[in-house]
Amino acid sequence: MFVINVINLCVSLILEIWLVILLLRRDARRHFPLFVFYIFLSVPITAARLLTIANYTAYFYIFWLTNTALLVLGLVALHEVFHSVYEGFYQVLGFRLLYYGVIALVLIVTAINAVVNPPAHAHAVIGLILRMGIAINLLQAGIAAFYGALIKPLDIGFRRYPTGIVMGFGISAIGPFIGYFALSIFGTKFEVFTRNISGVAYILGVLIWLLAFAGPEREEEWSPPMPPEEMLKIVRGYLRALGRKEQ
User: Fold this and answer.
1) DSSP of 28-42, one letter per residue?
2) What is the mean pLDDT of residues 165-190?
3) Which residues contact 117 (CB under 8 A, 6 or more apart)?
4) Looking at residue 55, what DSSP letter applies?
5) Is 218 left (phi over 0), alpha (psi -120 to 50) or beta?
């Protein structure tokens, strides 16, 4: 297990450094500053985990403290990309209430449940971070799925950079989610799988980000697919077709 963890961390660190170089070359900070910050922060975090992996206590604290920061920043960075593509949706009050309401509700319910029903074999704070992490992974996967579901109805075409970022987050979020439920259902029967699925999913996510930014740069990939006002008209048309009145 130790060797597998070392391999996962080494591969992740190499890919993250490669991705940082690509993001600098593309000057991605101008368009997705939070995503770039997320990747830049991931490099020293992965390096710190790798350097302390032989020291259980040091690794334990570094992992859980940095895991919290990456989870929150990852959700915010994913929202940044979603907003950049579907900005017109945010002009609809009902969408904003539903979008932010679902995020807030999931996090609040998860936090309350973690406090009221703490895990039996873990510290209360670790249990809270673990459950909040699963909730954030679920939200990330949901936002990624929603992003993909809107592409065809709005006919916005494939946007390599934002779509690649969203897909990477979606893939990396599914891994911990699967591992958590596999552990809940099968216990330690598939321990190797449940302990490593998160790391493998994250590596796949970074590979998707690398593929998105490795190709020839096209300026139109950075721009929104359509003006927010035009997107708002399309949204209003769908609402009228569904017999709903916009607030």
Assistant:
1) GGGT-HHHHHHHHHH
2) 80
3) none
4) S
5) beta
Nearby residues of 96 by Cβ (< 8 Å), 6 or more positions away: 90
In this structure, what is the dihedral angle of CA atoms 108, 109, 113, 114, given to the nearest 10 degrees? -40
Residue 237 CB neighbour total at 10 angstroms: 10
**Is a pLDDT exceeding 80 seen at residue 216?**
no
> What confidence tens digit (pLDDT) does each residue in 75-132 have?
999 999 999 888 888 888 888 888 899 999 998 988 888 777 766 556 677 778 888 8
* Residues 96, 90 contacting (CB under 8 angstroms): yes
Neighbours of 156 (CB within 10 A): 17
User: Could you please report the per-residue DSSP string of 126-148?
Assistant: HHHHHHHHHHHHHHHHHHHHHHH
Q: Is residue 25 classed as helix, strand or coil in its secondary structure?
A: helix
Kind and range of the H or E run holding 230: helix 228-241
CA distance linking residue 212 with residue 205, whole number of Å: 11
